[in-house]
Amino acid sequence: MAVTKILAVTNRLDKRVAYVANEQKTHLDASMTYITNPEKTEQSFFTSAINCRSVQTAFAEMMATKQRFGKTDGVQAYHIIQSFAPGEVTPEQAHRIGLRFCEQLLENRYEVVIGTHLDKAHLHNHILINSVARDNGAKYHSNRQSYYQQIRRLSDALCREEQLSVIEPKSPGKHYAVWKAEQQGKPTYSQMIRADIDMMLRDSYSFPMLLSLLEKKGYQVSRNPNRKYLTVRPPGAKRNFRLDRLGPGYSVSELKARLLQQQQDMADGLVVPIPPPRRKFYRLHGTFHTVPKKKITGFFALYLRYIYLLRRYQAPTRKKLSYTLRREVLRLERYEVQFSYLRTHAITRMEQLEMRLAQLDAEIQQRTEQRRPLYDQRRYTHSEDHRAQLTEQIDCQSAALRALRKERTLCRQIIASVSEIEQSLSAHDAEKSHHKEVDSHEYRRRGR
């Protein structure tokens, strides 16, 4: 089983590599040094060069090829990592697979260095490919299609020839943001769409009626017969969602089957509407004295109300929120962090927030000026102890600067969020007032 990954090696200077002979190593040189590390490749026994005289001269030959064709800028090389399952291959077999992989993928056109690393339980090949072809100077381009159609497919084919296991995809992958939200229990657009479809399915008698109800709720439904898949876009979303990718039970055929089953259950009397819970009223006797509470104002009142409304959508309640607020549920964690910061620093007005932002700017500038001469002192000192002390001071200042910049970013986000929250609450109040007026007219019409 081989897992592959490809990385682009640019021509920017590698900050991770220390100063050596007053010269900085480029990414290409640093990658070459890492791949051919003797401690990882059994004293360079499992290193090879393709279309180069030797591994030691490969870097110079790659640079000469770039200079010959005048292509020294942009991506310098591509770094492919080919990892095998622990105990599945021998070092000789892994290195042989890497050589065959390069020969078939590149067709003897590019200069390559291969190093098989043995320092981990899983043996893995590091393959460095020059981005410029040695025959005509054409640049190698890597994209999503070339990775899946060439690199991954060829690696899997070689593993099958060597009778190694191959990873077979079981289901389409998820976007990382969606996967992370599901792992943390946060709402996603897919969950919102599924909840809306389930709710409107109970009031629908046919599939066109279901789509009409979705459109009344603000959804954009694609009814183009030339499109293979039916898609919907909820209010506020930036892209369409295919019904067949929402999960089991939400494709067009499955929704029609659910509607048919619902009609049969209603005909058989199996579906009984659930009445709303009855309210109980209690009569209180006696005199009660209450202590007036301090009124919450400013940012505290704004954030408390907004977070409360957003949490209502997450809780199992019958009350509905506007689509503007339902879209904002995805940002609930961000607003909770902002509210916690405002409460910790007792900031309730915009003037206080702007004052705090000005203080952060001044402190960041002061610490930056204090850190700048430390770099020069460390660069020219010859004492290792003094160098260690300066490094510790620089790290301390850098940590403080990171915290201050993070706080400054948070303050700027709060300033931008306050106006958005106010607009969202105004839209929610207007929509709520509109629904009350519609319900009142409906009540009067029915009472006639």
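[next item in queue]
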Amino acid sequence: MSDVRFDSALDNLIGSLAEKVPELLADGIIIRDLYGKLRIVVNADAPEVERLDKLSAPVWIELGAYGRFDGRHILGTDDFFDPDLMLHDPDIVEYVPAGTNWSARILDRQVTGQDWARAAAKGSHPTRVAFYGLKGGVGRSTALVMEAYHLGTLGKNVLLIDFDLESPGLSGILLPFSELPEVGIVDWFVEDAVGQSAPIVERMAALSPISQMPGMRGSVRIVPAFGIDEHDYLAKLSRSFVDVPRAAGGVEGFGARARRMIEALETAYKPDVVLIDARAGLHDLAAVSIVGLADSVLMFAVDTDQTWQGYKLLFSHWMERPSVLFSVRNKIVMIHAMFPEEDQSRRTRSFIEHSHELFTSTIYETEDETGAEVFNYDLMDTDAPHYPHRVFWNKRFLEFSSTLFADGTLGDDFISATFGELFQCIDERLPGGRQ
């Protein structure tokens, strides 16, 4: 079947195994390599592997190029120096082909994008909120800054993380260049790779001048992508995503390293709330923020076909990986960004309908005959993740800078009118609820 393509190869393999060799589907781990080719690892010795390889021979022929190897298609414990590392790899996830009841364990080897399928480990930490958008230019970073200001007026100590490493700029909004800290996030990653990140953690954050404003009862600190004396940023950035060896064996990926960094920063600065400026798009940096770090994810969107198509790509990816989906779906909060001044009733309805359609076609569950509780919400349910909180468009924020605070351009009433729904949304997610 030479016409088999990447899109169908994995699902075809799972279907063939379910029909012809169900024991392999139940007990094996499907490995999809960097080219999309497929093999299976089993916890078995050489004679059993040989038997399974012969038994499954017809399955691989049906996969065309994606099932074509010179050697065996079934690998066992004798094929690995440390089989436990392979059999218990943390990147193994459950995969369910769309429209089926089949389930398989897969290990998807990818150059990038692995962190979209790495669910975060549970743990105790300050409230973390990620600000995310598929595209730039929707006011995400400005909204984050205003949220930090709002939380500061409530007496919260806020730590802002500029995790948009490939387009850094959060520090430029809230910090004069002369007040940048000594080092930034890329410095932590390159020093961590050689085992010396601990000493620089307390030199990574700087106090924003807005912390000194009247009415501020808390503090706002920024962890920028780079420090004040940066001169080789691109060289550091290119090395930030490498996996590093673990002392106990194996390697530690970028997502796990990012979690360690955030935990070290939280220990050093003791914030009440951590706000993460996630990279736009479908990059690993966004994946780490959304899947691996945040308790809540504000997904900024404007009501365009491009927006909904992009989010559907992401939601569909999770839909086929239930273990990841279950850890992510309750984090999602839709934000109707740049909400217009005119025709507001119609535009609100249009956004809600498109958002509900997105969720219904992907991550909302279908009610079954047993009446069991399912993850599903009505169109106009204001508590639903698809139901948006609005950030209103205003030309004063098109070229936003912290000087607008100092010169009195931004009054509290004006800020509340623009960002009030966002503030309330996050307030309700803090310990103790609405402040």
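[queue empty]
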